Structure formats: C-alpha cells, structure tokens
Amino acid sequence: MAKLLLGVSGGIAAFKALEFVRLATERGHAVRVIQTHSSKRFVGTASFAALTGAPVLSGEFERDPLRGSFPGEPLGEHDPASHLALVGAADVFVIAPASANTIAKLANGLADNLLTNAALAARCPLIVAPAMNHRMFEHPATQANIALLRERGVTIIEPGTGRLATPGEHGIGRLAEPAELLAACEVALAPNSSWRGRGVLVTAGGTREPIDAVRHIANRSSGRMGFAIAEAALGRGAEVVVIAANVSLQRDPRIRYIDVESTEQLATACAAEAETADVLVMCAAVADLRPAAELNGKLSRGATDRLTLELEATPDILAGLAAARRNGQKLVGFAAEHGAQGIERAREKLQGKQVDMIVYNDISSEGIGFDSPDNEVTLITAKGEQHLPRAPKSTIAMQLIEAIEALQP
Ligand code: CTP
C-alpha cells in the first residue's frame, strides 16, 4: 500500500480522476486529493472526499482536518506547521488532469495555489497527465512546457486521441485512462519493476475466416480484454507488442500493433513475434474451424438455395507455441467457457496446451466477457486457482499482470 497524492486541475476530464481514485483505493492505496479552485467547477470536493475517505484541500491557507496524514494513518498530534505536509508524506504525486494552465505554471515554477506549491515542494516522483483541447495541447507553448517538465524528470502520461469534449472536435488531448494512470504510479513506486524491458506479446480480438470475397465466419470478441492487458503490461514498463485480430479500439502510441484477420495470419505473426517475447498472453478468440476452401468471388443468391460449407480445424496456435517455447518463456491462455463444467474444461486446457496459466471466464454470466467493459475470471495455474471478482477489464488486466509476475521462473 502506498500514499498517493492526486492533484486535480480544471478540465472536463476531472471526472475521470474519480475513477482513478476508485481504482487506487480498491488496490489498497491511501489517497489524498488537492483540487485547484477551477477544478471544483467540474467535480465537487464531496465526490473525492467520499471516495478517499479524507477531506480535499485547495488553498495554501486552509487547515487540514487530518493534519497532513493519509487515510489509515493515525491523526498527527499537532497541526502541521507547513501546508506542504501532504506532499512531504506522499510516495507519489500525480496531477490528473493537468490543464494547459497548470502545466505552464509547473514549467515556470509558479506557486499560486496548493497544487502548484505541492508540485514545487515534491521530493517524490511527479507524474503529470495532460488533458485539454487538441489545439491547446499542440500549441508550441504547451509542447515546450511539457518537454521542459520531461527534462526535469517528470513522468508525462501522454493524452489519448479521440473525440474531445467540444462537440465535433476530434484529436489528441483526452486524459489517459485511469488504469494507465494507476499503472504509471505503481511503476514510479517500484522503479525496478521486473517488467522493465521484458517483451510481452498479447493477442487480442477475434479471427475471421473467409467464406467468399465478402463474407466470413467471425466471433464476438471486441479485443477489449487483450488491449487492457497490453496497457497494464506497458504501465509496468514492459515492451509490448499486440497482434490485433479485427480490433477497432483506440491504440496506445507506445505499443506496437500488428493487424491480422484470419487464424492463419495470426499464427504466422505469433510464430515470428514469439521468438523475442518473454511472456505471451493468448487472449484472442481464435476460430476453431474455418471453411476448407475459400469460394472464388462473391457467392450469389441465385446460384443455389442451399449451401453446405465444409469446415476444417485450424491449427492450435497456443499449443504450437508451447511446444516450441524458449527456456523461461511464460505462456498464458484463455478459456471462454459456457455454463456448467466450464472450469473443469479450463483446467484440462492448462495440461492439454502445456501453458503456465489459463484465464477462465464463464461467458454464460451476464454482463461480463464479450464486448462488455467488465470481466470476472479465475486464474488457473499448476499451483492453484485465484478468483478475480467482477471488475472493469482494466482492473482485471492489472491483477493478471501481477499474477503472471508471481509465476515462478
Ligand atoms: N487457441 C489457439 N488456437 C486455436 C484455438 C484456440 O491458440 N486454434 C487459444 C486461444 O487463444 C485461447 C486458448 O487457446 O488462449 C483456448 O481457446 P479455446 O477456444 O477455449 O480452446 P480450444 O482449444 O479451441 O478448445 P474448445 O474450443 O474445444 O473448448
């Protein structure tokens, strides 16, 4: 458990900081929040206070009812002499969202509110997550300020690209996802993370097997779980490659993506990439059967009123990679099973595919699995089983990365 100090500045993305606090407290961290005055126009202090279990501070002259302590700590005997007690005690200080104005103040060493005072006084790792309109973010002044902060050792969490708060505006400037912010905090807390520099290969999405020039057999996998795992590994400092089978989700510029469609393409890409991967997480939903032969051109309705497709089994990519694995390489498979005895079938896959872990989920449960933001899984290893209760896929991904770390070499 660590002491995380969160600075929230004024921006529409302040609402995402609430989710960050929820995730961080769920992971057992103690969180205190400093808000700028303008951030309170977006999210009120009561929300942060309720989630952290501690009062929120904004001004340099405000008294801290908790006397500079974090939730779970004994209350200090005296009022701290300095308004900087909180940042003095924090293990990491993360500013999210960081507005253009706050970033400019940080770059210039201004200290006109508690947040900027705390940033100047911070001796712990400082993480800044910009969020703003794309024209403001791309402005040379903002870019220069960010470059300066980076030079001074501040960790910058790049904003994402996508739809922005202003209707019709699209571009770079969206605050990084809360799970990514938390992963960055955890890396800062453990700079010698065992993931640093390790090669992680994740497959995501679902394959498509062509029937004719326009039709295919597909499955419902969205790629969300695989992308979340890749982001969690990235957050821990790993070098991440994702083989994405038909995934149309937002991408992280720090991850290398290889796009594939069919099982055959996935198998080829896996064989090439597995050579340098230390960990392989086979999250993609791979077709078990494919049309034995692709029909030429587009099959027309007039041609026939009944059609029999002959299907053939696809190669088991994961089992093939396991058979050819390098010394020390870790392999994780998934088993999306339906209903009763699903867990037994998943246990059999651990042996059958000769992998280190099977992530089992019951896709007959409502609200988890395919295309949903949540999941609930059981991690099966030779040593035992660990149930991860229903949570956002980003949280499950972080827990999975920890469990992989705990696998013996
Ligand atoms: N898998 C694979 N190649 C395949 C089929 C599956 O690499 N042709 C991988 C999946 O990515 C997953 C694991 O194997 O990590 C289990 O997939 P699943 O479809 O549950 O198992 P199957 O071996 O196909 O067995 P069954 O469909 O009979 O349950």
Question: Would you summarize the structure shown here?
Answer:
This protein is of the alpha/beta class.
Structural account:
The structure is a single chain. This protein has 13 helices and 19 strands. With 409 residues, the chain is an alpha/beta fold. The protein folds into 2 domains: 3-189, Rossmann fold; 199-405, Rossmann fold. The strands form 5 sheets. An 8-stranded mixed beta sheet has the order 12-11-8-13-16-17-18-19, with helices on both faces. A 5-stranded parallel beta sheet has the order 2-1-3-4-5, sandwiched between helices. Strands 6-7 form a two-stranded antiparallel sheet. A hairpin with a 6-residue loop joins strand 6 (160-163) and strand 7. The longest helix is centred in the first third of the chain and has 13 residues, at 14-26. It is elongated and about 80 Å long. The chain binds cytidine-5'-triphosphate (CTP). The site of cytidine-5'-triphosphate has 15 residues, from helix 11, strand 16 and helix 12.
